[in-house]
Amino acid sequence: AIYDRAVMADQNVASTYRLRAEVLAAKGERKRAMTDISRALKFAWDPAFLKVRGILRIDDGDFDGAVRDAESMLKLQPDSISALALRGAAYARKKDYNRALADLDKAANSDDALAFAERGQIFVAKNDSDRALADFSRSIELGSISAAPYRGRAVIYKAKGETAKAMSDIGQAIQRDPRPADQYFERAAMRKAKGETDLVLADLNEGLSRQPDNLNGLLSRAQIKQGKGDVAGAIADYDAVLTRQPENAGVLRSRAAALMETKSFAKAADDFDRLIKLDPKNTQTYYQRGLAREKDDKRDLAIADYRLAFARDRNMADARQALERLVPEEFAPKPKIAEKAAKGDSKKPDAAKRDTGADKKTATAPADRSGHTASIASKKTEKVSDSRNNTKKYGRDARSQSDRRNAVRTIDTRQTRVRDEGPRAIRAGSQETRRPSNRFDDRRRNPRFTDIWTNRR
User: Fold this and answer.
1) Across the strands, what pairs with 367?
2) Residues near 14 by Cβ (< 8 Å), separated by ≥ 6?
3) Alpha-carbon distance 268 to 253, whole Å?
4) Which of 72, 109, 73, 115 is nearest to 90 (CA)?
5) How far apart are CA 151 and CA 126, in angstroms?
6) Residue 183: enclosing H or E segment and its boundaries?
7) Which backbone phi and psi does 399 adopt, to 5 degrees?
8) Residue 196 gets which letter from DSSP?
9) pTM of the full predicted structure?
């Protein structure tokens, strides 16, 4: 206000325009600042005025114009440190670091705030954060009116985990130059980590007003709006993102959920259609589309989606419950299966009766005089069964060997009787001493006994 009154009192005072330009630049009103400094230069071609305009041009991205202002200063003052700092800053923004450091090192020796700020930016580009932090801090101590050292130091503080200092510096940078959108998004991210939802939303609104196509900003704002109940506002932000990224599955799913909240079931089903085309194997999407169609009174289409979901995942309880609700007859027990189960239960008592009757029919032999029950099978039967068991156990060869051993014993007995009693006693003997069957005559007989037996027969 003081400078405004001074200018109104004497509009030909160049220094008043310069001072007001510096104040306006510090407040972020750069257009008015440029207007005032241009008027001042019309009255006097002063190096101090050229410096102010050169700084404003750097902030506006007019680096070549800033170099021309610095060279004009050097023509008026060949040893001007401010001119070297301004030219070095312009070269640094053009990424001509060799020329920039040559000028900035000379200017920094004279404690020029701009020189420290711009040299700090070069150290950031070279990943030397410690030297960059020192230069930014020194520039701020020397009273820099530029937002650059505050922004640069805020980035370093954030990387070091000093969030409070970073947020403070971003606030100072915004006061000096509120135009860049990135600083609002950076502060919004730090405020989100602290849970300051309202302040996050305010920063996102400021950033998106300057950069409306920032997709991360749009998504963050949509999520906050949806969480706060502003579903319509969230859908608008999702629409803006999908306009630029129509196949973003995450955004499609989020918008479909928001549309379900607003009972826009047909539009939600359309989003689920797009999701199925992007990922046909996602079983959950079929169920969600079926739910949207059911709420939209499209029963047949909903049942078809539930069936698709349940066919792909038999463990999906939601799809099964939906089908049991809409088509309960498909999950009711079939009549034939029920009849078979009933018949099976009715047969069980008859089977028990048969078992009981079988127990009663078990045969027993009459008891002998001693009171003991006689066994049905005779000893001979037992022997036969034993031989059969042996045959099963050891095979046919085992039974043949047993028969051969019995034959040998019989032959030995006959030879002994022939020697002691003669062949007639053998012929007149009992059945036990008769000649064995023919099949044993040809196997392993004693040759002497065979000859004797044949001749005497």
Assistant:
1) 373
2) 39, 40, 41, 42, 43, 44, 46, 49
3) 9
4) 115
5) 17
6) helix 182-193
7) -65, -40
8) -
9) 0.60
